[in-house]
Amino acid sequence: MVAQFVKDNPGTPNPSASDLAVIFFDHFSKDHPGMFPSSVTHPGADGKDVTEIAPVKEGSDIQSVFFDMWRQDHPDALLQNVPGDLVTAPGSGLDRHHSGERRISA
Predict the structure, then answer these.
(1) pLDDT tens digits, one per residue of 77-100
(2) With contact defined as beta carbons under 8 Å apart, do 28 and 15 qualify?
(3) How far is CA 85 from CA 46, 61, 80, 90, in A?
(4) Is the pLDDT assigned to residue 105 strictly greater than 50?
(5) 45/63 Cα distance (integer angstroms)
(6) 3-39 in b/e burial notation, b at 16+ Cβ within 10 A?
(7) pTM
(8) Are 5 and 16 within 8 A, CB to CB?
(9) Which of 8, 56, 83, 95 could lock 38 by a disulfide, CB 3.0 to 4.6 Å apart?
């Protein structure tokens, strides 16, 4: 991707990270629709944890990245501080992993 960028933009022989980010995310989104690159840790062949960048559909790091992007685009938006338990406690309805929902199987 870097070589192609330099070829297409001869006036920028040393592209910056922001130059390459657009190309990276364009290719990534085409190769992995509906997913986002995130660090994922899993056991390696030797039994030790290995962390790598992999496509994921959800995760708190994704949420924080998108919130940070939104916040940069909306720096004057008024935000209200709320206790963390208000949005993560069972029954809050906002965190689906802690929603307090109970299912009965037949």
Answers:
(1) 888 887 877 766 666 455 455 444
(2) no
(3) 39, 19, 14, 9
(4) no
(5) 30
(6) eeeeeeeeeeeeeeeeeeeeeeeeeeeeeeeeebbbe
(7) 0.47
(8) no
(9) 56
Q: List the structure tokens of 5.
A: 């960028």
Asked whether 36 and 56 are in contact (CB, 8 A), the reply is: yes
Q: What is the mean pLDDT of residues 63-74?
A: 81
DSSP per position, the chain: -HHHHHHH-TT-SS--HHHHHHHHHHHHHHHSTT-EEEEEEEE-TTSSEEEEEEEES--HHHHHHHHHHHHHH-TT-------HHHHHSTT-SS-GGGS-------
Could you state, in order of their start, the residue ranges of all structural domains in the chain? 2-77
pLDDT digits (tens, 9 = 90+) for 24-52: 888 888 999 888 888 889 899 999 999 98
